[in-house]
Design brief:
elongated, 66 helices, alpha/beta, disordered N terminus, 48-stranded mixed beta sheet, about 35% helix
């Protein structure tokens, strides 16, 4: 290279001037001798003559300054000599400064002789600085005085220069070898690079939104490693990279290796961006892969790049210079994507020793991280996905751009030799046209390596298709080692001959997929070998002109070579190996591959430094395609292995991803080969490969497996965007339309984020989208880089419903291009173009395109830069898009004019439904559909929302005029404006001109009282507004409501005015009234949260007469005190229409006034004066109540949630008698102490009008009054802590008071003592109903005190007591007349023996005690026996019930035996399950009998029963003597036990000894027929049997017949039960005959009887019914489960008029229809004695219910009604309620699942049934209204014990209503509420307040 003069910045004097400051500091640290020697270099007087004799530090500094100043102005030769001496003599010069000074100082040596003793220092490529050189200058340059002392640096530089020269030669040879057969010249200035920002240190995973993240914020672009910033040439990109780490990324095959070699060649020639003085080191990572042992930097450089000449001395000199001057080296590291290792980012903990061996990955990482050779220039190349590893170290990143059409065409021309006159121009022109017209070939050709392959394929197709001769261009070396990037398009025919004169090629077609392109390539390469004479013995086949599955015959000829080559490719993939040495490849395969062009040859150095040849496939995709062939044609790869490896690859990578050298195209080709179009080719190749047996079948199975795997991926819903795109490519390769449909079927929205999209990617999307059919597909592109050509391809998508683009990358040009293709989307419904860079120009383009999209419904152009002009462009197309639904135009840098332009479109565009603008951030126009306009439905009126717009007065006038021209609006929202009063007044002036039907909102638009006054005018009689709501406290709210089209004049429209939180003072009220005018229609006035005070309240009360239609005034939170409260009390009395006043916190908080209409008179109006949450003084109460005394209307006074001070209650009691109109005093939550409560109870004695007193600190507390004196008073005092003195005081008050209906003192902690005092006083108290002492912490002693009232108080009729149970009930019931029978119930009280003795005394003492119940009291057998002993035998009969869990089986028998042994007056003894029942009758006094069996003869026992108590036959033996000693025994019941044979023998043996036995029940659980028949024989032996129970028995044919015959002889039977018996067919006639003969029968149960054939047939049912005709004395009949249907009912209705004595009939589960039910009810009208009617589980409906309304009132004795599980409707429910109102004796009603939830009327009718005790309304979906109705009727149903509301829709509101009602229902024991709408927490809360509520399933 010729030397040239450098610019001024390299001038030696200029460099010295630049570095003089740093040189001064360096020289100052040198020894004085060195400084003086340098000082003497100045000539003449400047040096030697003025030399100091003894220089000190100050003098040395002066010398240094003088030296530097002199040489700055000296000649270049003098300056260079000086700098050379400085570098040689001085120590500790920084490396960068030493290098620069030596470099610039050596340039003058060529013009002059070196100083004596010094060799000239010369570097390659130095400049001549000769502008000041000459003889005069030379004479003044002295020789260096220390040249002979520093001979080291010169040899080091010589070796360095020699090494650079060797590197130059190496790179030139390398370039010559690479470019021998190059098609196109390489020029860095013609290679384009896209500059990227290097995202340092970022390592983030895939951020494509998943299925659950649709619509989320667009993630940061990770996949393409940084953002595209600019486009520049590679030459420009590399400028300024000195001393930096630069990364150049590019697709596989984009020419990175070639470009790096070109860069080295330019350096070798002294050109390019790398200075020729630098050492250029070019290392390939695939070469570094061979280095397995640790290396030092010198070993890497000299053994594996370029060995130096000169031995170890040269190596040391070069390394030393390199380490001293690292900035003079450039390291090019090519192909990081092929590196097996992974570079790491190393923390800067200090430099590494470059002489220390280390693994090659660590060595390269240290170089990149500046821990070795800091300041050197480093250039790394890799693929984009691997650039993430360089993110933390690279200073600059650029990506090679693909070729455009011009580059491709130039390459094709060069390939086919168009510029060569001797070439076949037509062939090249055809190829260029064909390639440029084929989308997928064009996409592939954007990558140079693939463009070469495309040209080879086209050459093969065109030459073979036209029988033309190939051009002479040699293509063998045209393909360098590149990587894939191409895609595919639709099949297109080659251009045929026309006027252009081209040859006809109509039959030749471009391959339709990239896989078929590679199949064609395979044939082309094989054909090249054939044409070159390879394998000459093989015949050449004529290749038919067809698609990519051609050349099969030729391929078969080379089957063995292709097979071995493919296996080599597969092994390489498995081992991540792309370089193969000769030992890896069979020789014949190697020769074939080189001839055909499959391989490229490269040179590599072994570990020993020897250079050998290695081979790689011409492109990685070729290796992957051949590997795919092995998968699809041989069984080398198993199905399991294929399933394991088959996957989709993402384009986004992170540092943690595993590196791979390949392009991940393998399975793309596998999918392509799975296409049916490739089957024949695969079969042919498989034959040639000799792979498998049953070739075609195997190939098809392998193809099916691949498609199945692909189908699984198609249906996956968790794929990221890049994988979805890869899936589309794979499906397109497979050419399977069904798979494509599944892709869009599983994900109708295809979201792609941060991906660089190519036309081939869009083409793959189009293939999938076009397979969707009727499935509307959404394509969402977020921050995806794409060229405009992509939009041309995008227009091929025919089934896109929504297109979405989000990125600032998309500007006007993009919009313009998009607008040109929009009309080509026939199904497009929605377009989103958000967050882009579109201006008005782009908006105009989009508008022009959209107006040709008639099906568009949504347009979203938010976050662009349209401005007002752009919005107007969009608005112009509103009328042209009939199906438009919404347009979004927010965040577009617009002004108010844009909004005005949208509103101005409303009169001309009538389908605009809503214009919404929030500032300029959100601007949306919504449209109604034409179908809505044409439909009969009333079209809603448009709305306008213009939020946060700051209008001035003139702008408001303009807007108001525009709004006045608008069609009728429903809502106008102008909130957020912050206007002044003038602007607001302007708006109010125009409001009457607006056509608004619903509301105008101006929130946050005013803030002063003046604004309030201005707005109030809108509610005058002159305006149509009906409501005005103003709130000035943040958030400010103002709304004007209109009544709509009422047809009434403004003066008749009811109006509401709300001025809350407006800071109104009393003085402002007059201005408001004046602004409001007369406003005769004002109905509601809200003045809450102002500053009115008492003065403002007074002014308000003064103007009440002016507003005649007022209904409510809210004056809450206006600082009103008790003075204002007194005024309100007076107003309540003086204003007839003022009915309610609600005051809270003495008037400071809530203050509400309510009015009635003027038509109501003062006598009829109910008035309420409520004060709550207040602190009331005695004077306050006195003053207020004295005002209320004047009230003549019925009055309720509420003083709830307040505190009474001192003598407040006393004053209240004083004034209450004077308040004659008072109906109720409510003091809920105000009476909290027992003292206050007792004080208030004194009203019972002071006021004769009191009807009830109910006080509780936890719930409602009130006193009710009547106008006349009350006969009975209810007193309830609960949940207080009453001590003994309190009880005495209460008793004293009650004694002086009126008669009490009930007294409730529950939950008062009375304890035993308090209860004892109370029960002792009961004889002195006048109580008519009950006393409730529940939950008072009673022990068993207190319980006995309560029980003793049966003896001590004559009018006590019953006691219920429980001391330990959940309810802890203690109730004393009274009878009004005294006397009568009494009952005692003691439950869950854990009684001890002494308590049992006391109970026996009470029982014996109470001669009228009729029933004693002891349940779950933990009694032992001995205690029970003792209790029986202690019972007074002289008392009258008493029924005793004792229930304990242990009373069963043998214990039950033993207990019966002992009881009968201990007492002779037991008339009846019976054990049912675990309950012992005794009934006593009086006998003559006898002495104690003990256990003497001889006294058993005197036993008076008449009935013995052991029912369902787990009894076995052997248990009965102990009863034999007892039973036989009971001659009066008339009834024996052993039913529902397992007696067995022993029981049968026992029964048979004792029956003869029981002559008076009339009733026998053995309804058994006995499955053995023989045992049953024994029972039967024993039963029928007794002629006196009148009551027989044989239910659940099974007989044999003979036994059944004998039973029926025996029953025929039992003519005296009165009660027969044959429930669930199994009777054979032969016994049925006998049973019928027996029934006909039983004329004395009174109770007959034949439920669920079956015959041998199952349920009785229709004829059997009719026969059985016919047999009942003679039962004239029947009282009870049960025929459940007969399924008699209408025919049976018809026959039954004929019998009913005869059954005059019928009391009970049960016909459940009989398929009785509604019509038959109606007839049945009419027939039952004759059964006047009927008490129970059971009709559940039938088909009854409203007709039957209507008949009940007519019939049941006449059945006055009816007490039980069960019609559950029927189909009664709402009308039937109402009919039933009318019937229930007349059923005064009703005790039990079950309406479970009756078919309707409307049971309110039924619940209300229960108030007329005073005896009802069991109600079931379950499973009816009843709501709170039914529960609330029940709560209202409960106080009237005093005997009600159970309510079932299971499985309804009762919420916590209904349940709370029931809880409140339970306080007045002490007899009620259970309310079931399982499966209702009550949460578990609420259920626990409610049960804690009353345990009688049950939310459990049992």
């Amino acid at each position: 290279m010729d030397e040239e003069v450098k610019p001024d910045d390299e001038n030696v004097n200029y460099v010295l001037a630049q570095e003089s400051k740093e040189l001064f500091h360096i020289l100052a640290k040198q020894p004085p001798s060195v400084i003086m020697q340098l000082y003497r270099m100045m000539p003449g007087t400047a040096g030697g003559q003025n030399q100091p004799s003894s220089p000190g530090p100050p003098v040395l500094k002066d010398c240094i300054e003088a030296m530097l100043e002199y040489f700055k102005m000296a000649s270049a030769a003098e300056c260079c000599s000086f700098l050379q001496s400085v570098c040689l003599m001085c120590e500790n010069i920084p490396m960068h400064l030493d290098s620069r000074l030596m470099s610039v100082a050596g340039r003058v040596i060529t013009d002059r002789a070196p100083p004596p003793g010094t060799e000239a220092v010369s570097l390659r490529n130095t400049d001549v600085c000769g502008e000041n050189s000459g003889p005069d200058v030379t004479d003044h340059v002295p020789s260096s005085p220390l040249s002979d002392q520093h001979p080291v640096k010169r040899p080091r530089l010589d070796h360095w220069e020699q090494y650079i020269t060797a590197a130059t030669s190496l790179l030139q040879r390398r370039w010559k070898r690479l470019t021998e057969r190059l098609v196109k010249e390489v020029q860095l200035e013609n290679v384009w690079v896209s500059l990227r920002t290097a995202n340092r240190g970022r390592d983030r995973p895939d951020q494509t939104p998943g299925s659950a993240d649709r619509g989320s914020r667009t993630p940061e672009p990770d996949g393409d490693f940084g953002c595209l910033e600019s486009r520049l040439t590679l030459e420009t990109f590399l400028q300024g990279c000195a001393g930096k780490v630069t990364a150049l990324v590019g697709q596989a095959g984009s020419g990175k290796t070639l470009l790096m070699s070109c860069l080295g060649q330019q350096w070798a020639n002294g050109l390019g961006p790398v200075p020729s003085s630098y050492l250029f080191v070019l290392l390939e990572f695939r070469q570094l892969n061979l280095l397995s042992r640790p290396l030092s930097l010198s070993e890497l450089l000299f053994q594996h790049y370029l060995p130096p000449k000169g031995g170890d001395n040269a190596k040391r000199a070069i390394v030393d210079y390199l380490l001293s001057n690292p900035e003079q080296s450039c390291w090019v590291l090519d192909g990081y994507d092929e590196f097996h290792g992974k570079l790491s980012r190393q923390e800067m903990t200090g430099p590494l020793d470059p002489k220390t061996p280390m693994p090659v990955a660590e060595l390269i990482s240290a170089l990149l991280n500046r821990r070795i050779l800091p300041g050197s220039t480093v250039l790394v190349t890799c693929r984009p996905r691997d650039a993430v590893d360089l993110g933390g170290v690279s200073d600059k990143v650029g990506q090679l751009l693909g070729w455009d059409q011009y580059d491709i065409k130039e390459y094709v021309d060069n390939f086919f030799g168009v510029k060569d006159p001797s070439a076949h121009r037509d062939l090249g022109a055809w190829a260029a046209d064909l390639l440029l017209s084929s989308r997928h070939l064009l996409a592939m050709s954007s990558i140079p390596a693939l463009c070469n392959i495309c040209c080879i394929c086209l050459e093969h197709l065109l030459v073979e298709g036209t029988d033309a001769e190939r051009p002479k261009t040699d293509g063998g070396g045209r393909a360098q080692r590149q990587e894939p990037g191409g895609e595919r398009g639709r099949p297109e025919s080659v251009v045929t001959k026309g006027e252009n004169g081209r040859a006809p090629l109509a039959s030749t077609q471009v391959p339709t997929t990239i896989t078929q392109v590679y199949l064609t390539m395979l044939g082309a390469f094989v054909s090249r070998d054939s044409s070159q004479g390879g394998s000459g013995a093989r015949p050449q086949a004529s290749i038919p002109p067809q698609s990519s599955v051609t050349t099969l015959d030729t391929l078969s000829q080379y089957g063995s070579e292709l097979c071995e080559l493919s296996r080599l490719a597969w092994r390489g993939l498995e081992e991540s190996k792309i370089l193969f040495v000769e030992e890896d490849i069979p020789p014949d395969v190697l020769k074939f591959s080189l001839r055909a062009g499959f391989f490229s040859q490269v040179e590599v150095r072994r570990l020993d430094g020897a250079v050998v040849n290695a081979y790689c496939f011409i492109h990685l995709t070729v290796q992957e395609f051949l590997a795919a062939l092995i998968i699809m044609t041989t069984n080398d790869v198993s199905d399991a292995h294929l399933k394991k490896r088959f996957s989709l690859k993402t384009r986004w990578t992170t540092r943690t991803d595993q590196k791979t050298v390949f392009t991940d195209s393998l399975y793309l080709y596998v999918c392509g080969l799975a296409s049916s179009h490739c089957t024949s080719a695969l079969v042919q190749l498989s034959k040639a490969f000799g792979g498998v047996k049953g070739i075609k079948s195997w190939v098809q199975q392998r193809q099916a497996l691949v498609l199945k795997l692909l189908k699984t991926l198609c249906n996956s819903n968790n794929l990221t965007g890049p994988k979805i795109l890869q899936l589309c490519h794979s499906v397109q390769e497979s050419q399977d339309q069904q798979l494509a449909r599944q892709v869009v079927g599983a994900r109708p929205t295809l979201e792609l984020r941060n991906i660089w999209l190519s036309p081939s990617d869009i083409d793959a999307l189009a293939f999938v989208v076009n397979s969707a059919g009727d499935i509307g597909v959404t394509l969402d592109f977020g921050a995806c880089s794409m060229e405009l050509d992509c939009l041309d391809v995008l227009s091929r998508c025919q089934h896109v419903h929504c297109l979405s683009f989000h990125s600032r990358k998309y500007g006007d040009k993009f919009a313009e291009k998009l607008s040109s293709v929009l009309p080509e989307f026939p199904t497009l419904r929605k377009l989103e173009f958000c967050g882009a860079s579109v201006t008005a120009t782009g908006a105009a383009s989009l508008a022009s395109g959209l107006e040709n999209c008639p099906n568009i419904t949504e347009i979203n152009l938010t976050d662009n830069n349209l401005k007002d002009e752009g919005v107007q462009h969009i608005a112009e197309i509103f009328n042209k898009l009939p199906r438009l639904v919404s347009v979004k135009l927010g965040r577009n840098n617009t002004s108010l004019n844009a909004v005005d332009s949208l509103i101005e479109k409303m009169p001309s565009c009538l389908n605009i439904q809503d214009v919404h603008a929030d500032g300029m951030k959100e601007v949306t126009v919504t449209f109604s559909q034409n179908s809505d306009v044409k439909s009969h439905k009333l079209k809603p009126k448009p709305t306008i929302s213009l939020l946060n717009q700051n209008w001035c007065k003139s702008e408001m006038q303009k807007l108001a005029k525009t709004l006045a021209r608008c069609p009728a609006l429903s809502v106008l929202d102008l909130s957020g404006g912050q206007w002044d009063e003038d602007t607001l007044r302007t708006l109010t002036q125009f409001v009457p001109k607006f056509n608004v039907s619903e509301q105008i909102t101006v929130n946050n638009s005013c803030s002063s009282v003046e604004s309030v006054v201005v707005l109030t005018t809108l509610l005058s009689d002159r305006t149509p507004a009906s409501e005005l709501h103003i709130r000035l406290q943040s958030p400010v709210q103002v709304s004007i409501v209109f009544p709509g089209e009422t047809g009434k004049p403004a003066t008749e429209i009811p109006k509401k005015l709300s001025l809350s939180c407006c800071k109104l003072l009393p003085a402002d009220m007059e201005r408001v009234w004046k602004s409001l005018g007369t406003s005769s229609g004002l109905t509601v006035l809200d003045l809450s949260s102002n500053c009115l005070g008492n003065k403002g309240l007074k002014k308000l009360l003064e103007v009440l007469t002016h507003f005649r239609n007022l209904q409510e005034i809210n004056a809450s939170n206006n600082n009103i005190n008790m003075e204002g409260v007194v005024m309100l009390a007076s107003a309540l009395c003086s204003h007839n229409n003022l009915t309610q006043i609600h005051i809270s916190n003495g008037g400071k908080d809530e203050l509400i006034l309510r009015f009635s209409s003027e038509k109501s008179t003062s006598e009829k109006v109910q008035k309420t004066f409520r004060i709550n949450n207040s602190s009331l003084l005695p004077s306050d109460i006195t003053t207020v109540c004295r005002r209320l005394v004047k009230c003549r209307s019925q009055l309720e006074l509420e003083l709830s949630h307040s505190s009474f001070k001192d003598k407040t209650i006393e004053n209240l009691l004083t004034v209450l008698p004077k308040m004659l109109s008072l109906q109720k005093l409510d003091v809920s939550h105000s009476i909290t102490s027992a003292t206050d409560a007792l004080t208030l109870v004194r009203c019972l004695t002071d006021n004769k009008q009191v009807t009830s007193v109910e006080l509780s600190p936890q719930s409602e507390s009130f006193i009710t009054f009547d106008e006349v004196k009350a006969e009975q008073v209810s007193c309830r005092l609960t949940h207080f802590c009453l001590n003994g003195d309190d009880v005495e005081r209460l008793i004293e008050i009650l004694q002086r008071g009126p008669r009490l209906s009930d007294l409730d003192l529950s939950s008062n902690h009375l304890g035993d003592e308090g209860v004892k005092r109370l029960v002792d006083s009961l004889p002195r108290l006048k109580i008519s109903s009950y006393v409730n002492l529940s939950d008072n912490r009673l022990t068993q002693q207190g319980l006995l005190s309560v029980a003793s009232t049966l003896c001590t108080c004559a009018n006590v009729c019953g006691v219920e007591a429980s001391s330990l149970g959940e309810e802890k009930r203690s109730l004393i019931w009274f009878s009004q007349n005294g006397g009568g029978e009494k009952t005692l119930s003691v439950r869950e009280s854990s009684l001890q023996p002494e308590h049992v003795v006391r109970l026996a005394e009470i029982t014996s003492s109470c001669h009228t005690l009729a029933k004693l119940e002891l349940k779950n009291n933990l009694l032992q057998s001995e205690w029970i026996e003792n209790f029986v002993k202690l019972l007074n035998s002289t008392r009258r009969g008493c029924t005793i019930s004792i229930e304990e869990s242990w009373i069963t089986a043998e214990e039950a028998v033993h207990l019966v035996h002992r009881c009968l042994s201990h007492s002779s007056n037991i008339q009846t003894i019976r054990v049912h399950q675990t309950t012992l029942n005794l009934s006593l009758k009086p006998t003559e006094p006898t002495s104690a009998r003990g256990d003497n069996p001889d006294l058993a003869q005197s036993m008076a026992t008449e009935k013995i029963g052991l029912v369902d108590c787990a009894l076995d036959g052997y248990h009965l033996a102990s009863l034999r003597s007892i039973i036989q000693s009971c001659p009066s025994l008339t009834e024996l019941d052993l039913s529902n036990n397992n007696l067995g044979e022993e029981g049968a023998e026992f029964l048979c043996s004792i029956l003869p000894s029981l002559p008076n036995l009339t009733s026998l029940s053995i309804g058994a659980k006995e499955p053995v027929a023989a045992v049953v028949e024994s029972f039967t024989q024993a039963c029928v032996q007794s002629a006196n049997i009148q009551d027989l129970n044989l239910s659940h028995c099974v007989w044999t044919r003979t036994g059944g017949l004998q039973l029926a015959q025996a029953l025929g002889r039992c003519v005296s039977l009165e009660d027969l039960c044959l429930d669930c018996v199994h009777l054979h067919e032969e016994g049925r006639p006998c049973l019928l005959e027996a029934l006909r003969n039983m004329t004395s029968i009174r109770r007959l149960k034949l439920n669920k009887i079956t015959t041998e054939m199952g349920q009785p047939g229709q004829s059997s049912v009719l026969d059985l019914l016919a047999a009942l005709e003679g039962l004239g004395h029947i009282e009870e009949i049960e025929l459940d489960g007969w399924r008699m249907a209408d025919a049976g009912v018809e026959q039954l209705t004929g019998l009913l008029p005869v059954w005059k004595e019928l009391k009970k009939i049960s016909l459940s589960k009989n398929l009785i229809s509604d019509h038959s039910g109606e007839k049945l009810l009419i027939a039952l009208k004759s059964c006047s004695r009927l008490e129970e009617l059971h009709l559940s589980s039938n088909l009854l409906g409203d007709l039957t219910a209507a008949s009940m309304a007519l019939v049941l009132p006449s059945l006055t004795r009816l007490s039980v009604l069960d019609i559950s599980d029927n189909r009664i409707g709402d009308s039937g429910s109402r009919s039933l309620s009318r019937a229930i109102m007349y059923m005064k004796n009703l005790k039990k009603i079950h309406l479970t699942s009756v078919g309707t939830s409307e049971l309110c009327a039924v619940a209300a009718s229960l108030a007329h049934c005073p005896l009802v005790n069991d109600v079931s309304l379950s499973w009816n979906n009843c709501g709170d209204e039914v529960a609330q109705e029940l709560s209202r009727v409960l106080p009237f149903c005093l005997k009600l014990t159970r309510i079932d509301l299971e499985c309804n829709s009762v919420s916590v509101l209904g349940a709370e209503a029931l809880v409140r009602a339970l306080r007045s229902c002490p007899a009620l024991q259970l309310i079931r509420l399982w499966k209702n709408k009550v949460s578990q927490s609420d259920a626990l809360r409610l049960m804690s307040s009353d345990r009688r509520l049950n939310f459990a399933s049992t």
